[in-house]
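Bench log. Compound arrived from synthesis this morning; before running ITC I wanted a structural hypothesis for how 2-acetamido-2-deoxy-beta-D-glucopyranose sits in the protein. Inputs:
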Amino acid sequence: MSPKLILLMLLIPYVSSSSQDTAYPPPYGEELIPLRRDVYSSGKIYDITHSVSPGTLSGVSDVGIGEYLTPFRSMKNGSDYNFSIIKLPAHSGTHVDAPGHFYENYFEAGFDVDSLDLQVLNGSRHRSYFFASPALLVDVPRDKNITAEVMESLNIPKGVRRVLFRTLNTDKQLMTQKRFDSSYVGFMKDGAQWLKDNTDIKLVGTDYLSVAAHDGLIPAHLVFLESREIILVEGLKLEDVEAGLYNVHCLPLRLLGAEGSPIRCILIK
Ligand SMILES: *[C@@H]1O[C@H](CO)[C@@H](O)[C@H](O)[C@H]1NC(C)=O
Ligand SMILES: *[C@@H]1O[C@H](CO)[C@@H](O)[C@H](O)[C@H]1NC(C)=O
Ligand SMILES: *[C@@H]1O[C@H](CO)[C@@H](O)[C@H](O)[C@H]1NC(C)=O
Ligand SMILES: *[C@@H]1O[C@H](CO)[C@@H](O)[C@H](O)[C@H]1NC(C)=O
């Protein structure tokens, strides 16, 4: 920033008295504190994405992803602007898995995150679309992993195509712990198979880094990803949202060749 511009910014508050309702740019002199929130629009929009920080878990190591921004140009160094390079594991924090994550032939054929069906990731009440239906946020009994028996007990109605499973992981706030915890709750192979055989669910969301429990890691993923119709969203932030039906919107980056991507997910009441 040029010295002239800085001088001008210093003078502005004395020239024009700041109006309270000007949201941007913020009036000079007020404390510059960005607003960060999970709920927007007076309780209608919920951000169910965990923010990314060096402490974000990814499963790559036992601890967080570390410094994921590297300065490429820095104002501190006399550059006119800041410009960072982002480097982070594809399965960091709240993220999506593509079929190529567990199937070599799918990976080679290009079933990456760019190939995922946006219609599945955009679920809302809409009478005129066959595929349109909202997402159901359900509570899983806190003392169990998601087995066939548990899936059956949840009584998810036929026709529901998108389900977010809230588990003990949310109560334990596992996503924000410093260390990876392999005792997290997730799907066992028979739970994944039951879902595939008995429901219409095409979007499966859970509240830790993997939809599959550590003990069922590979088999449950294989069951889910085999048909290439089920999309797995992992590491959702599901605290402070009531169970029930919501419009859901999840958008991964269009990373060609990537078998996973960070994703932004919101629920709309
Ligand atoms: C800024 O300058 C310092 C000192 O010359 C250098 O070590 C650092 O790499 C520079 N950083 C950037 C982002 O240019
Ligand atoms: C961005 O600019 C600020 C202010 O000059 C500086 O402190 C910071 O290191 C910069 N960050 C990056 C990533 O370049
Ligand atoms: C996608 O989401 C928007 C916003 O909720 C909704 O209006 C639209 O009907 C959805 N589209 C489909 C095909 O579900
Ligand atoms: C879920 O399974 C994991 C192993 O993957 C186990 O450590 C954990 O205790 C189980 N949780 C519950 C609530 O049964």
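What the model suggests: Confidence is low (pLDDT under 50) at residues 5-22. The first helix runs from residue 3 to 15.
ITC booked for Thursday regardless.
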